[in-house]
Amino acid sequence: MSKIILGISAFYHDSAATIIKDGEIIAAVQEERFTRKKGDNSFPHHAINYCLDCLNITINEVDYVVYYENYLKKFARLLINYHATVPFGITSYLKSMPKQLTQDLFLEAKINKELGVKMPIIFCDHHMAHAASAFYPSNFQQAAILTIDGVGEFSSTTIGIGKDNQIKLLKEITYPNSVGLLYSAFTYFTGFKINSGEYKMMGLAPYGKPKYVKLIKDKLIHINEDGSIILNQKYFNYTKGLTMTNRNFEKLFNIKRRKPETKITQDIMDLACSIQQVTDEIILKMAKYVKKITKLDNLVLAGGVSLNVVSMGKLQKSKIFKNIWIQPAGSDAGASLGAALWYYYSILKEDRTVNLNDSMQYAYLGPMINNTSKLDDKILKKFQAKYTVYDEDTLAKKVAQLLNDGKIVAIARGRSEFGPRALGNRSILGSAIDENMQVKMNLKVKKRESFRPFAPIVLESDAKKYFDMDTKSLYMLMTYYVKKEHRLKTPQIKNDNMLDIIKQKRSIIPAVTHIDYSSRVQTINQKQYKFIYDVLKNYKKLSGIGLLINTSFNVRGEPIVNNVIDAYKCFMNTDIDYLVIGNRLFKKDEQKNYKGKVVKFKLD
Amino acid sequence: MTNNYLNSVNARKEKENLKECVIFGQTIGLIIILVSLLKFLTINASNDKYIIILMAIGLGIFLLGLIFPYVLYYPNKIFKYLVNKIFLCCFLVILSIIYLVLIIPIGLFNRQKYQKKYGFYSWNDKSKIKFKQFTNKEVAYLNVNQKNTSINKFKIINQVISYFINSKEYMLIPTILIFILLGVIFYFVTSSVVAPMLYTLF
Asked: Which of B139, B149, B188 should be substituted to probe chain A, the one whose Cβ sees the most A Cβ atoms within 10 Å?
């Protein structure tokens, strides 16, 4: 009899649901995609609805429901935290306890009520959920596991070993000492939003100099040889209050906390650069220790910090491990997947067969936009949208031609990606050889900060031509450097105008070359995604370069588009020139009858 | 997409709302009727017409709750919001008292133990601490053996106490028990059935 398991993550940030049947991942999706609230933490009813629809079953036909953390251990941690920080922790205590006592302590009853069922809910260990999300979908029979997160129950980092269908977590670093929280503290201090601004600070880092590294290591953090860290609580406030850092932190760096949306000064860039360098050092030390105690060649990673593409790139380059695999939905959303897989393999002890073809299905696990659909046609008719339908091959050629003409083309087709990255199905594509494209796309299309870099999508066969890389990169989870022969000399800019620095042409692919020549590369092959592969192939024939900008199809503060309606609205509210929905091609100039509302999203 | 699950969630929510409106109408209606009856029996006849009007209003709300309960949707929402706010205020006062009476003394008494055991370090340039490295990870799950697990929303009491006994945090058990008791009270108070009745106590 087949076993159906529903994994849920909710109530913190980025709620998600995953459904697996006999160990096969059927669907996984974040709630934000449906509710259109970025990082939505509400109970994932829409995500669950989609998961159940994929199997055409009701909630009563689900055999097991697994939640991604042990609420009891989390409660114990909070209680101990408040005892350890008396009398200063009262504000944080009064803020969190009402919710803890009325909702979280009765979580099983709450989940049952939300689902409309009466069944025992299984509560997984948070880091075990992360570990499972990294190990089970990987194509390793045996691997070392490293999960690095903000905090989950007591742990902030764990080390384990996965073998066949079993995972054993061996070591941990416990709260309040956490790489994730350290990085978040700097994210907060540099004026970005925690849980979403980390990417921005990472993108900002190359503009700065690592001048605070020594100060951070001397006063703020003690790094052991095994990579474990101790944070000096004199400078942090997250154990006691409602902010991440305190006044001592400001005094230490002699910098005021940057207010969100204000000018980014050189000091802020230097801070971002310094903490990135410290994070890199910690992760490399941790990896060496993991290697030392596990003596394995393969490493799998998950947890929020595993999405730090710069550190992961350096880890890959260090060759400490022969093979590395990172869960593309590394944050808490992916823990819903891990929780379900953990129960199936570790507890039910079902056999695990390694899927060499990528059991994550290239992260295309979300809702589908079919190439042709009468329902979608009907919806588009309501918008009075004008489009032309092509067969797939012609459409790929047409899109390639448009991109070669310098147009920006958005793509919405197939199943949406699980996790924060758009990998071709909900993407905006543009020319990477156009030196003005980064500024144009940031300001006019994405409506986000101009310093943020764009990532390239490149034919797998051409990746080595442009970047220092010796492996494929399916999920855009690591940075690689543009090869020296493709780099261009740039004159020294004397003023501190960031826009002037950004506009500098640093390589033959300027729109995807960050200031330090790094690039968050996605490689693509025919098996993975034929349509985008064909677009790139055709584009290469026209331009000579099999590489394009690939950025997520959304604007700042908006979750990645989910369905036809979201895609069309986003297209009409931005300066995107063309849109592909399924096999339809929309030209902006022809959409004259659109009277939809301009949707404004809360800035992240 | 068939949206079966979402439809059932929405239908359930609608049913709950309806139930809330009915209970709200009946409770408030009855309270007004009872109060007016009490007044009718205790005060002189000059105010009789006002009492009759009050009684009619009470009866009207009662009947509205039975016949057109959805009319009371927004009044019920406002009432519920107020109830939650009032109870939250009371709750915060009680939590503050617990913090002062239990958490501060226990925390101060065990301060060093908690800070060292759980890695809360603060240091200045002069102090030298032997810093903790990676420690052994203890994994704990709940309800893993699903077949032997009962469905009882209050099994948490047993689970919490067992957890703190196993982790040898005996000092925290009294605080935990008070917290659970508070949690249970608040859980009941804010549930739709008793909220309107308890609200009148204030």
From this structure: B139
